[in-house]
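We close this part of the discussion by returning to an individual protein. Part of our work consisted of pairing the sequence of a single chain with a tokenised description of its backbone. No coordinates are needed to read the tokens, only the vocabulary itself. The amino acid sequence and the backbone structure tokens for this protein are reproduced below:
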Amino acid sequence: MQNNITNSGLLVLMMLNYDYPLYRPPSEADSLIFQVTLGCSFNECSFCDMYRSKQYSERSWDEVKAEIDMMAKMLPDTKRIFLADGDALNLSVEYMQKIVKYLREKFQNLERISCYAMPMNVLKKTPEELKLLRESGLDMFYLGIETGSDLILKKVTKGATSVTMIRAIKKAMDAGYIMSCMIILGLGGKTHSKEHIRGTAEVINATAPHYVGALTLYLENGIKDEFMTKFGEPFIPVSDHDALDELEDLISQIDVKNNVIFRANHGSNAYTIKGTFPQDKQMMQEKISWMKQHPEVIRPVGLRGF
């Protein structure tokens, strides 16, 4: 679902024993990445094939520690670290705390440690456990909302409901975490477009995460058949214009008091826009209106992808 790690420094790629494919959020492009888990323990979302080639496993402390020690000598001034693969928060509290504390000890200039977080993995941990990890130095979670529609969540086998996502986001934020949440334009197809956007806006309004990123559905060939089968009805993909309509509808329905940094500039999107709610809402609406009058600003299909 996120950018494949193709632009990391050659030195790091040569020294770290990465188990490919390796993914990270776009905003972690300059981060040092340690794979503390491999794959995804759930691995059933029909729109995601990131870890279908892997069996979920947890890397041993000896392996993780050796890589941390090596990179601390090579890149001592590292500012940001991302813990991969897709399920680092699935680790036990004790093991995750051990890793995070050691990272803080070895990298003295760290500004942020982050990882992906599934709603179920946030909810499995007590508020006290989440706070313990936060106090140990874990700063930020990337959580995929995808959609706020319970119907669509079931059709794409997300393994979560809108209520559980709201609970997870609030729980993490209450424990002091920075929350960056992703949604997927076009996930409900044309048939469920309005419901998709309405439910998604409701989740965002109920939680006001620090960051929201909008991607556009892009099905790899290896996942298309599974997605269509699980969807349970004919799936009619949205057009680029439809996706822009969804973006417009979403922005119009977001109503938050706290700042939410919004980005729809991912490589999968036909049109890009960014701003901060609530102050930039009108500006973003005006820009979308302008883009509808200037279709030449569309990103060429050949330049899109996850």
Q: What stands out?
A: The chain has two domains: 9-116, 143-298. DSSP finds eleven helices and ten strands in the chain.
